[in-house]
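Consider the tokenized backbone below.
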């Protein structure tokens, strides 16, 4: 039986999403074939992220062998941004200064290996770099929040195929973080438990939306998911920052990241595009018992390697809407192998 249209509430952001499963039956006249496999070289002499190559302004990358971090050559935020008047000529025309830092983290020297193709040790090194940079940037007196994120694939606006992520640190709370902070704080004050800890306990009890879990982390399609194969990654022990994780939890998180991204790639047997980011607590020097570290994966693909979900029309003007239920999306991801499709059949 096709489930009736209904709305689902996101307690993290206090937004609603319209779920319309019957729309999945509508005819599709677009292309659904696979895209050709992208064969990238291990090293690209024209890539400005590869070891030893030149970046903007004549800066040359060192011959790095692990995760490599540098200040973004075209940063969206600057530590010495000019002051903007806080006394607008009209209350509807308000602006304020925004200072910050932007850094790039290359996952490895390999131009051709994405997260699911790295081993857990290499992914753990990336996690260590993210945690260290979060701590260092968050300790600056003008920084209030540090955002770790990855845009993977041209569909998500990634300008260079060399696998890398970004870290933006800024002097004000971003919109989504401000909403999540308000929701988690209100829930903690009322229930004396972190919102995401209670939510994860319920999801693990039901198990229908769990895609992967190990001793320390669970990856699931959230009840309120907006994107077709959206994933929420949550630790079993509440922690506010990546730097709060124990060595065993870092190892478990590396495995969870590899398993989630492997299942994405296996879904349509392509290098699956997504935007992913870790939401950590504000870097304001305060205790945040309400906050639970978590990662969001927002992948755009819906029906095949060439058919994506577009946020247009109703989604832009009214509210998000999805065609397949989170439960059916989780079922598809659950059934996929945990071994990357490129490695199947190899001895």
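A designed sequence for it:
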């Amino acid at each position: 039986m096709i489930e009736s249209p209904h709305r689902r509430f996101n307690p993290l952001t206090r937004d609603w999403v319209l779920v319309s499963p019957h729309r999945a039956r509508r005819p599709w006249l677009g292309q659904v074939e696979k895209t050709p496999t992208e064969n990238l070289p291990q090293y690209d002499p024209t890539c400005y992220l590869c070891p030893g190559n030149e970046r903007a302004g004549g800066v040359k990358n060192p011959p790095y062998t692990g995760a490599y971090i540098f200040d973004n050559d075209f940063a969206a935020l600057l530590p010495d941004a000019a002051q903007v008047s806080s006394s607008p000529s009209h209350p509807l025309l308000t602006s304020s200064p925004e200072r910050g830092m932007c850094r790039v983290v290359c996952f490895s020297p390999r131009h051709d290996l994405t997260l699911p193709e790295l081993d857990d040790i290499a992914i753990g090194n990336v996690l260590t770099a993210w945690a260290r940079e979060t701590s260092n940037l968050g300790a600056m007196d003008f920084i209030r929040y540090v955002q770790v994120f990855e845009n993977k694939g041209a569909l998500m606006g990634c300008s260079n195929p060399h696998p890398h992520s970004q870290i933006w640190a800024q002097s004000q709370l971003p919109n989504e973080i401000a909403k999540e902070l308000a929701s988690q704080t209100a829930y903690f004050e009322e229930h004396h438990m972190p919102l995401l800890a209670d939510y994860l306990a319920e999801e693990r009890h039901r198990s229908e939306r769990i895609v992967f879990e190990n001793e320390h982390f669970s990856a699931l399609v959230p009840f309120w998911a907006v994107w077709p194969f959206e994933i929420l990654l949550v630790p079993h022990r509440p922690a506010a920052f990546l730097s709060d994780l124990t060595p065993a939890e870092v190892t478990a998180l590396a495995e969870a990241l590899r398993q989630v991204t492997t299942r994405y790639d296996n879904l349509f047997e392509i290098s699956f595009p997504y935007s992913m980011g870790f939401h950590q607590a504000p870097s304001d020097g305060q205790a945040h018992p309400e906050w639970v570290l978590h990662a969001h994966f927002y992948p755009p693909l819906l029906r095949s390697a060439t058919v994506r979900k577009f946020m247009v029309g109703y989604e832009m003007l009214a509210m998000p809407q999805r065609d397949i239920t989170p439960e059916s999306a989780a079922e598809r991801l659950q059934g996929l192998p945990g071994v990357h499709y490129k490695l199947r059949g190899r001895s």
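The chain has a mean pLDDT of 91.
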